[in-house]
Structure formats: C-alpha cells, structure tokens
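Lecture notes, unit on protein representations.

Consider one protein chain, 403 amino acids long.
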Amino acid sequence: MPLPPPSSAPDGKPGRSIDAGKGRIFPCDRCGADLVFSIGQQSLQCPYCGQIQRIEHQNRVPIVERDYLKMLAKLQRQRESKSLEEDDQATTQHAVRCDSCGAEVVFQGTLTSSSCPYCACPLQRDKVHDSVSRIPVDGMLPFLVPAETAAENLRAWVKSLWWAPNEFLKQGASGKFNGVYLPFFTFDTLAYTTYTGRRGDAYFITVGEGNNRRTERRVNWSSAGGEFEQFFDDVLIIAANGQHADLVRSLEPWPLDSLISFTPEVLAGFFSRTYDIPLEDSFSYARQLIEAALAQSARQRIGGDEQQITSLNANYSRITYKHLLLPVWLLAYRYRNETYQVMINATTGVVSGQRPYSAVKIAFAITLAVIVALFFWGLSGSSDGIHFSANDLQFGQEIHFGR
C-alpha cells in the first residue's frame, strides 16, 4: 500500500503554519496528532495511530556550490539598506504558542526546532532557515542512526578507553540523548601558494677519542622555495558557537555525497539550530585548516630530513560554499562531579567525546618508561643516547584525572 502524500499548508509549504506564522507543525491526516520524523522509515510517522506519511524530495532546489564573494556582497548591501533586522532577530529569544496545549514555547538564541515542554508537541520556528535575510540552507543529511544504536556505540567507545579509570569503565557514560541538527558551512577553493624555507639533510660524524668517542648527528641546511596550486573540496566548519570544534572535527567524514535539499519535515521531533558564526568568519576558520595543509604540502616539496618554512603566502580563488544542517546525537554525562560532552555522528555512528583519565595508569606508564630507559642506559654505559621526559606523553588538551 503506497504511503499517503504529504499535506501542504495554504502557503505551499509542508505542514501547517501556527501562531500567526511564527511556527509550523506537521499534523497527522488520520488522527490530527503531531507527526515526527521516523529514522527507521525515513518518513513522518504518527506516534499515536502509527500513520506513515512520506516526505517528498522532488521539486526541491538542487544542491549546488554558492559563490562566496557574491554572497558577501549581497550581505553587505543588506547591511547598508538596514534590511538585516530580521537576521538580527533570528538569533534572539522568540516565543511560539503551542497549538496543542496553548503554552508559550520559548526558543532561545539560535534554536529553531524544539518541542513543547508541557505536551511534547514538536514545534518549529517558521521562516528562519529559508528567510530572505539569512543565508539559505543548501542541503542536509537526515538522521540515520537511531538512539539505540548510538547508545551501543557509546558503550563500545567507553570500553576502548584504556587510559580511563577502571571505575569509569565499569560505570560507563550514561545520560539522555538529544538529537540536534547543527549548522555548518563547507568551502571549496583553489589556493595558489608560494613558499620559502630551508631543507635539512642529516649526516653523522664520529667525534672524540678513547672513552669519549661517539657518533653525533649533524644537519646540512640549504635554501628551498617554490610555488604550487592545490584545490580544497568541502572544508567543513561548524557555524554554531558553544560547540567543541575538536569534538566536531572528530566526527568526520560525513557522507556529503548523500545530501538532500532542505526539508523542514525532517526536523520534526529533533532540535535544530541556525548559524550564529557569520559566513566570513567561518571562512577565516577554514583558512586555518587550509593553511595547515598547505604548510604540510610545502614541507613535502622541500624534502630532506628536516624542513623549516620561513614564508608561506596563499592566494585564494574560485571560493564557493554550501550551508548545511547535519545531524548529531548529543549527550552530557557526569563523573566525579565533572561534566563531559559526547557527540555521535547520526549518519555514520562515529563517537567523539570528552573523557576522564586515570592518574594511576598514567603514573604507572611513566614509571615503566623510566625503568626501561634506565635499563638501556645501563646496557649502553652512557646517558648520551637516551633522553626521557614526561612531556613526551601527550594526552590532549583537556585531562581530568581519576583513580
């Protein structure tokens, strides 16, 4: 039996507009309850009568790369004409009256999709993601990983943390999963790069006499430089403040070849945010990642055993972008009065999170390394060959110690 087609509001959009156009809901055609997006069905489904309503992706705007400089010029014209008041209002507090129970649902900041705290009715702010004063959403990925699978992946992730306290490994990370669509910008660009630096070629010589005779490493330095072009495709930048960029980056790669056009029905039942990091600032963050990759490319071109870069200049052309909404399972858990955040890629199931470390295990590893170093030092009869420092063990920026 074919699924019923989606219902449309008088404005031609799916669902029904409520509270004088401030919000939007998706009522069930059979019983009138509010539909939510079903991950298993990849359709809207009524949680009460089970009615499944398909989502139409036909006749949507094709997903294409957008001209970065043209968009910046458009935004500048809007600023000059003071037509960005709606854009400013998009990231402030808004209230939408729930159509089911009449309560005022407050949308704080960049939140655009939520649910009523009293009756759990899913609500969306209308005319935000597709506002003429905002950068439109070009594409999105729907949730593919259900919460149950995300929980299984989280348990497997915890078990893989060898440096974690044993108490934490037994206790695990527990909390409530929240599904949220986070805003991203992707950037494509062609970088023409010139660089100068030095190439170091290592060689060894024997110095000293008698018991002091030893081999030392020396480096012969020579000048180096050149130019090259390198194309960057889909450099992904989170466009929401308050998120851990390192955790978000660890969720990559995303299956961006499976993007669908912006579909508000897919947001039903999940949280969603609009961007509050402007396009130009997002490209500045992208440039940091690009320039790090360019420096690595320059080092490969310099060659040798060591490289020093004295100048690196890049000119960017053919800059394009896409504005995307990508699905993430968020969870916050507590361990020994500390709060840790976990993110799970809701399309691939990849887990990225903060975690505690065991001071006992780290101390044991350092002690063992010192013993091994002293053992080999004793065998060699010289301390010149081995240098050990606790700083050689790097465990990341955020370390929380437990037993």
